[in-house]
């Protein structure tokens, strides 16, 4: 008892048996939107479940019994968990493929929430011929969406990585992940 009191008085950290470690802090994630460099922050306590279903909910609650739904939409369910990295590591592969990191535009849970939902939105440089645009689309497996192209990519970090690679191509004016953004009520 005296040894514990001495440790507490000395300011030493005390870890209780079975206590969960604190989640990681807000890690910055750099990405580009056209020529503009952007930074968002990886939430240490939020995960996004894409195409949410009962199996995903059960798996997330099994991985973290304290998991709570923070945002529920037909295509995305955002969960608050104790430690996002640890929870994701415990998920079965079929669920983990649909559960991705939540990014915030600032290192706080009050900042704008965004999820790289998969795919990359690309706008090609003005002045490219119809043949050059069609060739670019074929090479990248892109589909046309109005004035933009949608290039297939897995959700999460793979879509961020692909957007960065595509942005470096000379034919590309803008490449950005296909973001899911939480709407705020007024």
Word description of this protein:
The protein folds into 2 domains: 27-115, no CATH class; 116-181, Alpha-Beta Plaits (2-Layer Sandwich). It has 6 helices and 9 strands. It has helices at 2-10, 54-63, 84-90, 93-96, 130-140, 157-167, and strands spanning 27-33, 36-50, 68-72, 76-80, 99-104, 113-124, 143-145, 148-151, 172-181. Strands 1, 2, 3, 4, 5, 6, 7, 8 and 9 form a 9-stranded antiparallel β-sheet that branches. A hairpin with a 2-residue loop joins strand 1 (27-33) and strand 2. The longest helix is centred in the C-terminal third of the chain and has 11 residues, at 130-140.
Give the averaged pLDDT, no decimals. Answer: 87
- The string of secondary-structure elements, in order, is HEEHEEHHEEHEEHE
Helix content: 25-40%
- Terminal residue distance: 54 Å
Q: Beta fraction of the residues?
A: 35-45%
Structural class: alpha+beta
Question: What is shown here, in short?
Answer:
This protein has helices spanning 2-10, 54-63, 84-90, 93-96, 130-140, 157-167; strands at residues 27-33, 36-50, 68-72, 76-80, 99-104, 113-124, 143-145, 148-151, 172-181. By secondary structure, it is an alpha+beta fold.
């Amino acid at each position: 008892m005296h040894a514990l009191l001495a440790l507490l008085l000395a300011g030493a950290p005390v870890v209780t048996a079975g206590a969960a470690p604190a989640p990681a802090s807000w890690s910055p994630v750099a990405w580009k939107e056209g020529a503009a460099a952007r930074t968002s922050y990886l939430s240490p306590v939020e995960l996004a479940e894409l195409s949410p279903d009962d199996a995903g909910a059960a798996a997330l609650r099994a991985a973290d019994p304290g998991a709570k739904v923070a945002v529920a939409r037909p295509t995305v369910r955002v969960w608050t968990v104790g430690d996002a990295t640890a929870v994701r590591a415990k998920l079965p592969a079929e669920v983990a493929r649909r559960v991705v990191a939540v990014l915030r535009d600032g290192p706080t849970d009050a900042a704008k929430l965004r999820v790289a939902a998969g795919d990359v939105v690309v706008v090609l440089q003005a002045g490219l011929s119809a043949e050059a645009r069609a060739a670019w689309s074929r090479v990248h497996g892109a589909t046309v969406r109005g004035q933009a192209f949608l290039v297939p990519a897995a959700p999460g970090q793979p879509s961020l990585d692909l957007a960065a690679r595509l942005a470096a191509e000379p034919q590309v004016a803008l490449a950005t992940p296909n973001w899911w953004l939480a709407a705020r009520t007024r």
